[in-house]
Task: inverse folding
């Protein structure tokens, strides 16, 4: 396996485990308190969030499939540069702060502080910007074969970008209250 593709696989395996593990640990360590994570998000908007989360997760899996299975790392270029180092950096920008969100939020709920709030906002902003970067990188990558797989990857990245860049980074913090 190509070294950058192997790195991408490990970033996703370790980073994805860290994200899911932080969520599982956070919910298990605060049994029955999951409602607090919604902050001030009204019930009628939670359906939008839940749908967005599912679409974002499906989109993530879709573009990850494209990158790991369908895109040749030797041929893939973004503006004449190898594409996979950029993709790996974007994955780190999505996964590392995503793994920090829940622990930081529980800490904020338990012991509010402006430093924690800044950390949460920064983590969410980094994820949103990295997801936007993934949209841009996928739209610029050459070659784009097979075309159907590339289009699905691009649509998936847009779903993740909209959810993380708008709902998570902008709407949730505006409505959150401890």
Result:
């Amino acid at each position: 396996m190509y070294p950058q593709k192997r790195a991408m696989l490990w970033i996703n395996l370790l980073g994805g485990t860290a994200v899911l593990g932080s969520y599982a640990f956070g919910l298990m360590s605060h049994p029955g308190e999951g409602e607090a994570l919604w902050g001030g998000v009204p019930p009628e908007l939670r359906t939008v969030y839940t749908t967005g989360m599912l679409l974002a997760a499906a989109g993530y899996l879709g573009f990850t499939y494209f990158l790991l299975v369908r895109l040749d790392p030797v041929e893939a270029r973004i503006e004449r540069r190898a594409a996979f180092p950029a993709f790996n950096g974007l994955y780190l920008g999505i996964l590392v702060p995503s793994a920090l969100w829940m622990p930081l939020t529980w800490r904020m709920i338990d012991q509010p502080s402006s430093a924690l709030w800044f950390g949460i906002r920064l983590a969410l902003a980094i994820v949103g910007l990295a997801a936007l970067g993934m949209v841009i990188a996928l739209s610029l990558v050459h070659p784009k074969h097979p075309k159907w797989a590339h289009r699905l990857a691009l649509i998936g990245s847009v779903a993740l970008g909209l959810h993380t860049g708008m709902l998570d980074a902008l709407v949730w913090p505006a409505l959150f209250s401890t």
Q: What stands out?
A: The radius of gyration is 17 Å. The CA atoms of residues 78 and 140 lie 6 Å apart. Helices lie at 3-28, 43-70, 84-110, 114-140, 147-175. The mean pLDDT is 96.
